[in-house]
Amino acid sequence: MQFRTSQSARQIEVDTPVHNTSEDGKLFKSVRTVQQIRQLLTINSTVKSIPDYYLDAAPLKEYNPQKQLSKQITFNEVNDEELQRYKAEWHWDVFFEFLFYHMLFLILLGPLVVLVLFKYPGIILLKNMKFFKHSSSFYMQTLLWMGSVLGGLMYFIQDKSVVTMTEIIFMWFAITTRSVVIAAKYATLSTARIKLYKTQELPDEMFSFDLMFQDWFCQSSKVLFLEQYRALRRHEQECTLYKFDFLIEPNIKTSEAIKNTNICFYLEWAMKQQMKQTDPIIEQLYYNGFHIFGYLVNQFQQNNPQSSFYKYLISLSLFYGISPIFIRLKYFMENIPDWFDLIRLLLNFITSLQAFFGSVIVLAIGIYDFKRKFFLLDQCLYMLQAKKVTYSTGKKLIPTINFNNPQTLQAWSIIRSLSFDYGQTYNLRIQGFYSMIFGANIVLIFVSLGLILDLIHIDMFQLMLISEMALILIGFTLYYLYLGASLNEYFDSFQTLLDDVKSIYCDILRMREQYILNNIQPINDVHKIFVYIIKEQIGLDVDNIKEYIELIIEELENNQRQLEYDRRNNPFKLYGVLITLNLLKSVGVGLSTVFSYAIQQRLSNEQK
Question: What residues form the membrane-spanning segments (predicted)?
Answer without folding.
Answer: 99-118, 138-157, 169-188, 309-333, 345-368, 433-456, 463-482, 574-599
